[in-house]
């Protein structure tokens, strides 16, 4: 009888997708989920969202939870009589870069849309909405006319020569903008996408004022990007685009069609699908795979004219899934997707988010899997591999280290982050100068005095090694767009684990009845 019960349990778990890999295509994600030491996804999700409060610029609200931070940059925009306060510092510096900030808002909103139930179950929806609104509010302020968008606040070169808290910041708050005569379709297109995605988060609120502002500004920004085409690379000082602007136009039109169902945005997607193709990465510069994901959701919903987007998205999956026969992005010996040895986790988290959403979409549409040259991947296999990437980041790796600050007992202590590495203004209230920061706080091997909970750093090298060195910014610096992608990926892994646990409980209940 005991043997029969074990056999029934095994077969039931196979039916639920546990260990259902086909040959070499099988991944370790299911085994990871079944380990007793599986990550606490709810805790990681909460901390990933909390990180954004530590990146806030401007006057902090009364309910600010990251208490080592204070008000900063309260006069941003004054030289041109505009209000550019608020928003986020993008990484470990004190500059506000609108292009990656908008991408972060888009990804946060996408996470809220796709994984609302999981985020709500974790008690984090209000905090995620707050993180989205803080960034979206800034983007609304940065658009001061139908053909003017401020894209940066702060002199990046001067800022990078200083090591000081944002509360002490005295470097030039130089303003950069795009206009009809000096366009940047990448920046305006991404801002359009961000506000359309945010609109979908807030559109069902009882008070429609904010949602109406978001959608109106998104439509206007798309028109600006499309009617005054020009590359941001020619006008930007930092975060220049190297993929061109066509991907942002597709990305924005896909979000606007999702938000409005206005046929003109669908027409744009259909008429311009020849401008996109297979890619092996998704990041703040290259949005092709993201646009392909949104268009594929429409294709699977019956809009068959968008088939080329699905073909390209399938190529993306084959490029990143191990043992596909078409691999372009290798994995480290420890199993981490490794695109390049510089802030690699930004590419890992974005790929993981896309794989998670695609798996969910394939499963809900009953569309089967993805055929690569050497393997066919089921939705469960894709989501399991995505979960393995989340697990790696949270500590299931050769270093036994979480790459999220404040998660578990072993995490980076010396992150490349000005505010984290200098005592809080509430602890050391005197002004600390640029040079004093570099001489007294930057070079020390002591742990950062402020634990920037939730910050995900650039990550290990290609051999799974990490030195926890403040000076090594390519591995030890966090960034908003790393965390923004991780939020959705983590919520997806949490939902997968919950589903698996419920399935196991059902099976155990069934077995106990024998």
Automatic annotation (TrEMBL):
Q: Which residues form a coiled coil?
A: none
What EC designation does it have? 3.2.1.4
Q: Hey, what's the signal peptide range on this chain?
A: 1-21
GO biological processes:
cellulose catabolic process
Q: Which InterPro entries match?
A: 6-hairpin_glycosidase_sf (IPR008928), 6hp_glycosidase-like_sf (IPR012341), Glyco_hydro_9 (IPR001701), Glyco_hydro_9_His_AS (IPR018221)
Pfam families cross-referenced by the UniProt entry: Glyco_hydro_9
The reactions it catalyses are: Endohydrolysis of (1->4)-beta-D-glucosidic linkages in cellulose, lichenin and cereal beta-D-glucans
**Matching SUPFAM superfamilies, A to Z?**
Six-hairpin glycosidases (SSF48208)
Query: What Gene Ontology molecular function terms does this protein carry?
Result: cellulase activity
Instruction: Enumerate the active-site residues.
Output: 416
The family assignment reads: Belongs to the glycosyl hydrolase 9 (cellulase E) family.
The molecule here is called: Endoglucanase
């Amino acid at each position: 009888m005991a043997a029969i019960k074990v056999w029934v349990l095994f077969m039931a778990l196979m039916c639920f997708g546990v260990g259902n890999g086909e040959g070499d295509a099988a991944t370790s994600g299911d085994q990871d989920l079944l380990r007793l030491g599986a990550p606490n996804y709810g805790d990681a999700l909460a901390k990933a969202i909390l990180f954004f409060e530590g990146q806030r610029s401007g006057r902090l609200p009364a309910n600010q939870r990251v208490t080592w931070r204070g008000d900063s940059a309260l006069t941003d925009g004054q030289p041109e009589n505009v209000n550019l306060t608020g928003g986020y510092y993008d990484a470990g510096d004190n500059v506000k870069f609108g292009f990656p900030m908008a991408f972060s808002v888009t990804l946060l909103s996408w996470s809220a849309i796709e994984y609302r139930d999981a985020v709500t179950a974790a008690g984090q929806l209000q905090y995620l909405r707050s993180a989205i609104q803080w960034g979206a509010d800034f983007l609304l302020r940065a658009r001061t006319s139908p053909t003017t968008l401020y894209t940066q606040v702060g002199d990046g070169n001067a800022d990078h020569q200083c090591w000081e808290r944002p509360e002490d910041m005295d470097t030039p708050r130089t303003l950069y903008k795009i206009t009809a005569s000096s366009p940047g379709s990448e920046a305006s297109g991404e801002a359009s996408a961000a506000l359309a995605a945010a609109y979908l988060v807030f559109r069902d609120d009882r008070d429609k004022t904010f949602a109406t502002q978001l959608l109106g500004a998104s439509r206007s920004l798309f028109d600006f990007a499309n009617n005054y085409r020009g590359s941001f690379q020619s006008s930007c000082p930092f975060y220049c685009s190297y993929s061109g602007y066509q991907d942002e136009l597709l990305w924005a039109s896909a979000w606007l069609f999702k938000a409005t169902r206005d046929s003109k945005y669908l027409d744009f997607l259909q008429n311009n699908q020849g401008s996109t193709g297979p890619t092996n990465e998704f990041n703040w510069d290259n949005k092709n795979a993201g646009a392909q994901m949104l268009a594929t959701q429409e294709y699977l919903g019956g809009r068959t004219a968008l088939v080329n987007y699905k073909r390209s998205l399938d190529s993306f999956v084959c490029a990143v899934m191990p043992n596909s026969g078409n691999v372009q992005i290798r994995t480290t010996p420890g199993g981490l997707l490794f695109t390049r040895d510089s802030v690699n986790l930004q590419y890992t988290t974005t790929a993981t988010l896309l794989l998670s959403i695609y798996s969910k979409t394939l499963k809900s549409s009953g569309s089967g899997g993805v055929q690569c040259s050497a393997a066919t991947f089921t939705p469960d296999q894709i989501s399991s591999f995505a979960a393995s990437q989340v697990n790696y980041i949270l500590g299931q790796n050769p270093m036994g280290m979480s790459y999220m600050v404040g998660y578990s007992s072993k995490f980076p202590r010396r992150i490349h982050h000005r505010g984290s590495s200098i005592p809080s203004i509430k602890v050391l209230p005197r002004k600390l100068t640029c040079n004093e920061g570099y001489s007294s706080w930057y070079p020390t091997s002591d742990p950062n005095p402020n634990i920037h909970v939730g910050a995900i750093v650039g990550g290990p090298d290609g051999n799974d090694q990490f030195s926890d060195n403040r000076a090594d910014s390519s591995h030890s610096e966090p960034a908003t767009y790393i965390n923004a992608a991780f939020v959705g990926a983590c919520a997806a892994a949490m939902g997968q684990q919950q589903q698996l646990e419920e399935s196991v409980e059902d099976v155990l209940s069934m077995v106990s009845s024998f």
